[in-house]
Design a protein that fits this description.
Bound molecules: ligand C2E, calcium ion
Radius of gyration: 41 Å
Structural class: alpha+beta
Strand content: 25-35%
Number of helices: 24
Distance between the termini: 136 Å
Largest sheet: 8 strands, mixed, barrel
Helix content: 40-55%
Length: about 700
């Protein structure tokens, strides 16, 4: 290989010398402890020494003729270096990662030399390869101590931890221990010490987040958890950490900080999720990032559990709490890393989706959430499943204010809820307009009471036996100064939602009782007519109801037995025990209680015997199908029969045709109400009617 000085010797006598020299050389190479590979210009191996083959886990024969890139992991393989470049470089040195036959990897240092012919033309490459695992470890130990130092100076208020995953030993800084009220020697250098102190409810979440990072699924570890303090209390901590990985991507060590966030109170204590303040904070930063990125959309999902109150009231708060925790965990499981789930309070949750590109992604998350929540699970000895209504709002240009985005998602959630359980809705401009209109109704409605714009109409209730009026139902109308007559369906729900129903209801009750009393005095033949007044769930569940009713009766002088309070099943389904007691109290005063819209609620016939009511009103939706649909008529028949057995009076409402009336008479229904007889009438028209009945 070396240049031969002087004139070229005759081949015949030169041969043996070269051969023997080459053999010597080869022997030396064969016994070297470093790997040696010779490749041709196409990058194919023409020679490897035993050390090289052994280092890479091959037999030598397997390697000859293979591309030299066989030693590199697939992602690091390159084309062989071309001849022009080889003419320039001659030799070079680099550190890299090589791969053994079994796929395992190790760090190497490689020295390559270009072999040329006499004229300097490249013929191939000789590479010397050395395993430098040991050297790397020494270097990383040095880096470790530097990093630990960096962590330590980062904040005197933060505790530091540093966990060697290979030895299992964990270093807790004195500050880390002091945050928990412990002295230096009181805490062992094991992770178990940590896990033992974390609140049991936060442990799984914390470890999951840690495992996810160690497995390479997240770019850092972060968890907020409660941890036991020596004084017996729990402190909220935020811990962040970063793993250090070896050449194979395996985490070898993870170090991080711990900050006391007890005072920040950004977390919901029950679920450990961020609260509203933290959510809005994260939403604001997400919007900020989205502004700088074209096409990036920020999404907010607003979730409200359906019928959570029923669970809470019927199964107790402990079960309710468990359910909320389960939902929190489920929601966290539906997200991509980086997204945020928060609990705003009660059964309301929000999800922040960062950097999505359009509604499809948000809708997909909503669908995933529905699907997961609906998987049945056990709570205590109950098999349960949950549904939620979800509203979705998306940022358009990142200019929106976080509170507004949250409000829009909330509005959309209400819309979803009104469509039925387990649905989701994307916010749109119509909803904004509807919300504004609702707001308008709300402000106007407040004034309506002061300005005496509400009026009560009275719809007669008749006896089918005598065809005579036996009472009235009070139905409220609103004479709006600009919009004219507004029907209750347009404003009762708003009144209920805003709580205005309490004042309105109180006024209607007083007005109806007063009116009935004044008719009694004017028309002695009408002295026994009843007055039915609708009570909304909020009124019915108000602690002052009994007091208030008593006061109205005292003031107006109406006999309690002539007052009928109509409540819908929704008023007591949420808390049946309390409702039974309330009904008992009202009836104890001598008032009658009637279940309105019977048959449209949740539980229908089966619960009737539990509720000590006087009467029920068969909902118009059943009556309207008489006599055409056999099944509905049969249902009406069953209701009437069962009510008769329980001594409950029945009123059929919404009677519009003679055929319906005749059939109801056949079925032994005693009372009816409907357009066939009378529409709701203003007090003047009722007065004319009563005068004729004298
Ligand atoms: P509701 O208690 O079921 O009242 C009966 C409704 O059916 C009334 O509607 C009445 O006008 C209507 N109706 C009666 N007979 C017929 C009929 O033959 N055919 C048809 N198609 N409809 C008939 P309105 O007055 O619009 O009231 C609607 C609902 O608003 C009431 O339903 C009640 O739930 C609520 N509401 C009305 N006034 C009050 C109130 O003062 N307080 C509360 N809490 N709710 C009220
Ligand atoms: Ca009613
Ligand atoms: Ca009704």
């Amino acid at each position: 290989m070396a240049d031969q000085p002087g004139p070229r010797p005759a081949a015949a006598d030169a041969e043996p010398t070269i051969r023997s020299r080459l053999r010597q050389l080869e022997k030396a190479v064969e016994t070297m402890q470093v790997g040696v590979t010779i490749t041709d210009l196409d990058g194919r191996i023409v020679y490897v020494n035993p050390a090289e083959a052994a280092m890479h886990g091959y037999r030598r024969e397997e390697l000859t003729g293979q591309p030299a890139s066989i030693f590199a992991p697939p992602e690091l393989r390159r084309q062989p270096i071309g001849r022009p470049r080889l003419r320039e470089v001659r030799s070079w040195r680099r550190e890299s990662l090589n791969q053994r036959k079994d796929g395992s990897r190790f760090p190497v240092e490689i020295l390559s030399d270009v072999v040329t012919d006499r004229s300097g033309e490249p013929l191939g490459l000789v590479s010397i390869c050395q395993d430098i695992t040991d050297r790397r470890q020494a270097e990383s130990a040095l880096r470790e101590s530097e990093e630990r130092y960096a962590l330590a100076v980062r904040g005197a208020n933060d505790g530091i931890w540093d966990w060697n995953l290979e030895t299992g030993e964990i270093y807790f800084s004195p500050r880390w221990k002091a945050m928990l009220g412990h002295r230096e020697e009181e805490i062992d250098a094991t992770p178990e010490e940590w896990w033992r102190k974390i609140h049991p409810e936060d442990l799984a979440r914390t470890r999951e987040s840690l495992d996810a990072h160690l497995a390479g699924d997240s770019d850092h570890f972060q968890a907020e958890y409660r941890i036991a303090h020596a004084d017996g209390s729990f402190r909220w901590m935020l811990s962040r950490g970063l793993a250090e990985r070896d050449a194979h991507g395996e985490a070898r060590r993870i170090a991080g900080s711990q900050t006391d966030i007890t005072d920040r109170q950004v977390l919901d204590p029950l679920t450990g999720l961020p609260n509203r303040a933290l959510f809005l904070d994260r939403l604001a930063s997400a919007l900020g990032r989205a502004r700088r990125k074209i096409g990036a959309v920020t999404g907010v999902l607003f979730l409200d559990l359906d019928r959570f109150k029923v669970v809470n009231d019927s199964l107790g708060h402990l079960v309710g709490d468990q359910l909320l925790k389960r939902v929190a965990a489920t929601l966290e499981g539906c997200l991509r890393p980086g997204d945020t789930v928060a609990r705003l309070g009660g059964d309301e949750f929000t999800i922040l989706l960062e950097e999505i590109h359009g509604p499809e992604e948000a809708l997909a998350v909503a669908e995933r959430v529905h699907a997961r929540l609906e998987e049945p699970y056990r709570l205590g000895d109950q098999e349960m499943y949950t549904t939620a209504s979800i509203g979705i709002a998306l940022s358009s240009d990142g200019q929106e204010r976080p509170e507004n985005l949250l409000r829009d998602a909330d509005t959309a959630m209400y819309r979803a809820k009104s469509l039925g359980r387990g649905r989701h809705q994307l916010f749109d401009q119509d909803m904004r307009e509807r919300a504004v209109a609702q707001l308008q109704i709300e402000t106007d409605l407040r004034r309506a009471l002061e300005r005496r714009e509400l009026v009560v109409y009275y719809q007669p209730i008749l006896s089918l036996a005598s065809d005579r009026i036996i009472g009235f139902e009070a139905l409220t109308r609103w004479h709006h100064p600009e919009r004219g007559l507004i029907m209750p369906l347009e404003f009762i729900a708003v009144a209920e939602e805003t709580g205005l129903i309490l004042q309105i209801g109180d006024w209607v009750l007083r007005e109806a009782c007063r009116q009935q009393r004044s008719w009694q005095q004017e028309f002695p033949a009408s002295a026994e007519l009843t007055m039915s007044v609708n009570l909304s769930p909020k009124q019915f569940n108000h602690p002052d109801l009994v007091k208030q009713v008593r006061q109205v009766l005292d003031e107006t002088g109406l006999a309690p037995r002539l007052l009928v309070l109509e409540i819908t099943e929704s008023a007591f389904i949420e808390s049946p025990e309390a409702a039974i007691q309330m009904i008992g109290e009202l009836r104890g005063m001598g008032i009658q209680v009637c279940v309105d819209d019977f048959g449209t609620g949740y539980s229908s016939l089966s619960y009737l015997h539990r509720f000590p009511i006087d009467a029920l009103k068969i909902d118009r939706s059943f009556v309207s199908k008489i006599p055409h649909q056999g099944r509905q008529t049969e249902l009406v028949q069953n209701i009437i029969k069962m009510a008769g057995d329980l001594d409950i009076e029945v009123v059929a409402e919404g009677v519009e045709t003679d055929a319906q009336r005749d059939r109801l008479r056949q079925l032994d229904c005693r009372y009816v109400q409907g357009f066939l007889f009378h529409r709701p009438l203003d007090s003047g028209r009722v007065r004319d009617l009563l005068r004729r009945q004298e």
